[in-house]
Amino acid sequence: MAKQAAGVSHRAAPVHMDPEDVAVLTALSAVADPVRLKLIRELAGSADWTRSCGSFDVPVGKAALSHHFSVLRGAGLVEQRDEGPRRVNRLRREEFDARFPGLLDLLLRADGVD
Predict the structure, then answer these.
(1) What CATH number is given for 19-109 in this structure?
(2) Is the Cβ–Cβ distance between 97 and 17 less than 8 Å?
(3) φ, ψ at 88 (rounded to 5°)
(4) For residue 11, what pLDDT is reported?
């Protein structure tokens, strides 16, 4: 069995869905979960690529959080990239708004987030 080099991550790069290829029911299902809605709202209030996955205050474990981010990527809402040991995120607001005009604005306004 080959040894892994110290400090080198061999995790797979995240797969991202183009919002143009997302069905409306997939998008609605992704935003219907309270944890995912909280992630979306926190990302909306943060600069792109400044939030690592572990920086969100949500009541789920690491595996569940990974699943929630996978659902958000699959709905075209979130893009992720690895920066060293951290996986950072951005809300794909412009692309998602082009596919589903007004949906994010409605979700973000519900708690007064602009």
Answers:
(1) 1.10.10.10
(2) no
(3) -105, 160
(4) 67
31-42 pLDDT, tens digit per residue, is: 999 999 999 999
Residue 99 sits at φ, ψ, to 5 deg, of -85, -40
Domain parsing of the chain, residue ranges: 19-109
Please name the amino acid found at residue 69. F
Count of residues making up the chain: 114
In whole angstroms, give the CA distance from residue 73 to residue 112. 24
**CA–CA separation, 4 and 18 (whole Å):** 33
CA dist 88 → 7, 38, 106, 109 (Å): 18, 16, 25, 24
pTM of structure: 0.83
The residue written with tokens 């919002």 in the block is 19
